[in-house]
Amino acid sequence: MAEEQRDGRVVDSETVEEVSMYGNEFICCFLPLLLSILAWPPLLFTCVKVVSEYERAVFFQLGRLVGKAKGPGVYFVNPCLHEVRVIDMRTKTFDVPPQEILTLDSVTVAIDAVVYYRVKNAMLAISNVENVDGATLLQAQTTLRNILASKSLTAILSEREELSNAMLAILDRETDPWGIAVERVEIKNVKLPRQLQRSMAAEAEATRGARAKVISADGEKNAAVQLKKAAEIMDSAPNTIQLRLMQTLNTISAQKNETIIIPLPVDLIQQYLNK
Does the N-terminal or the C-terminal CB of the chain have fewer CB atoms within 10 Å? Predict the structure, then answer.
């Protein structure tokens, strides 16, 4: 048995080796346990996923889609195996920037619109397109240009609802493979060149003036017809002339005039004229 002298004491070398071995075993056994206890809260936080009512979670296991989109609720995942993507299922909106469009009658106009859409299939929105919002916006711009370029300016100004419905149908069909449902499309503003605006204003003013003249002429025509009928009635009944005269005198007396001219009925002096 080997002995060593330390600080004036004799120490057995085998005893030193046993103490050193027990110390190493203690470090090897309890240190990982201690590290596990300390790492448990953050590890638990990464293993628990909370999905809200308006969200859906898509799980990838080693790069492969697993099951269906999950949510809402609490789900446990393995950070080493699973990758989680969370998709918002609420309705979103975006403004289509003004598009310079050459109409069918060779007029350049700037038209913008607003699109309402939502994700209806979270798995398709993740796996089939990289950026679903950006792709939908670009598709809306292309659809707007293609539809309005085949219409005249008059059709664009007077058929906004029909054009919006046509754009909605095409956009919803094109974005369906991406898991997108387009709910509504509205054409907001149609900006015309200033010179064209002045021309249209002058044309509208001329049209209104011509319409006013036609209405005035129709009124005079109707008034002449009614006067002719009244004259025929008065001619057939002479007493109506006297009644009309009295009504006229009553109207004149109600006005504040300094001079009142009273017409003399012709039938009163008719006998003197005959003589």
Answer: C
